[in-house]
């Protein structure tokens, strides 16, 4: 696993634990996660494969966030849902063949 990918996995775990602990969507952690994902996506442009652990995280992000959103109400639930779709779009863009 590349160091940039290890950082991405760590950012994801930090972000999702806060969601699961009902601490809400932490904007700072979310921005760090997005930036880390975008950095990985840039490095993947020249790769033919990605690490299995990273692939597992990418597959987990949307359903995990959708599940976490169910624990919240109102605007916070909506924010988490929007963030899940935004990350999903970044993942798709990051894995798209150029």
Write the layout of secondary structure elements.
Blueprint: H1 3-20, H2 27-44, H3 52-69, H4 74-95
What do these coordinates show?
This protein has one domain (3-95). Helices cover 78% and strands 0% of the residues. The model has no long low-confidence stretch (mean pLDDT 95). The chain has helices at 3-20, 27-44, 52-69, 74-95. Helix 2 runs parallel beside helix 4 and helix 3 (52-69) packs antiparallel against helix 4. It has four helices and no strands. It is elongated and about 40 Å long. With 98 residues, it is mostly helical.
Task: Please describe the structure with a list of short key phrases separated by commas or semicolons.
about 100 residues; mainly alpha; about 80% helix
Short description, anyone?
This protein is mostly helical. The chain has helices spanning 3-20, 27-44, 52-69, 74-95.
Give the helices and strands as they follow along the chain.
HHHH
Proportion of residues in β-strands: under 5%
Q: End-to-end span in angstroms?
A: 22 Å
Helix content: over 70%
The dominant shape is: elongated
The overall pLDDT, averaged over residues, is 95
Q: Enumerate how many helices there are, as a single number.
A: 4
Largest sheet: none
Structural class: mainly alpha
Q: Catalogue the unreliable spans.
A: none
Strand tally is 0
| Rg, Å, rounded | 13 Å
- Number of self-contained structural domains: 1
